[in-house]
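Design a sequence for this backbone.
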């Protein structure tokens, strides 16, 4: 019976992000094709190009978006967790996730987001936000403090409770407003704003991307290098983290 990786606790969505796999030794190429066939048979949402060589001999990486797992060369064992190089103290799995998130976020046209920009941009963050999330509201209530730090905030709408929730309806109304920035601000204050009927499918696009990013709650902040920060971070501390991330 064909299964979904969700059954193994991995939240996968329909959006594919192309990332270059590491080189495969000639002697392992045949084994890789066998593993790819095995994975494709087992998991509906995984395509052959999602399976690639891993840093560990005899194991292969399954990567779709920023969701990463590992499968043994015989296709018998599936491992979900972080792979850490003890010699270098580098979390190789998180580095892989960061690269995938970097590719995903850089591919989104800015007109597909709601952007608050300072006069001089020093840093750019992408924030998955829920209109009704308490800490999302706290972050946005301090938007001027982030702008004063030179942080450009690019919002993506992520109603945590899904398409049947009241938050989803509000997100669609925000997207359909003529001034989305003002509408988002008013929505987070539980105030009325002008909206209209429009194609609000971008909310679904943002939501599915959030699944691929691997976020676990909102707000979820993605740096330009793909690093994911879960939760609210005050402006000054976030500025310090952003500066450290580019050193």
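Sequence:
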């Amino acid at each position: 019976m064909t299964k979904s990786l969700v059954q193994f606790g991995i939240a996968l969505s329909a959006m594919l992000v192309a990332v270059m796999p590491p080189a495969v030794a000639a002697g392992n190429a045949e084994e890789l094709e066998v593993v790819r066939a095995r994975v494709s048979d087992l998991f509906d949402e995984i395509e052959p190009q999602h399976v690639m060589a891993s840093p560990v001999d005899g194991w292969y990486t399954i990567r779709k978006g920023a969701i990463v797992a590992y499968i043994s060369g015989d296709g018998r064992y599936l491992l979900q967790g972080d792979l850490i190089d003890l010699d270098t103290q580098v979390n190789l799995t998180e580095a892989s996730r960061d690269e995938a998130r970097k590719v995903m976020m850089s591919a989104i046209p800015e007109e597909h987001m709601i952007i608050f920009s300072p006069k001089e941009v020093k840093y750019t963050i992408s924030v998955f936000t829920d209109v009704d999330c308490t800490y999302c509201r706290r972050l946005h209530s301090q938007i001027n403090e982030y702008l004063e730090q030179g942080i450009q905030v690019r919002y993506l709408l992520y109603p945590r409770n899904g398409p049947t929730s009241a938050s989803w309806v509000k997100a669609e109304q925000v997207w359909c407003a003529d001034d989305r920035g003002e509408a988002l601000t008013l929505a987070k204050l539980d105030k009325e704003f002008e909206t209209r009927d429009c194609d609000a499918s971008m909310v679904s696009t943002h939501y599915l991307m959030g699944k691929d990013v691997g976020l676990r709650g909102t707000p979820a902040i993605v740096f330009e290098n793909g690093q994911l920060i879960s939760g609210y971070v005050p402006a000054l501390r976030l500025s310090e983290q952003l500066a450290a991330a580019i050193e």
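Confidence is low (pLDDT under 50) at residues 4-27.
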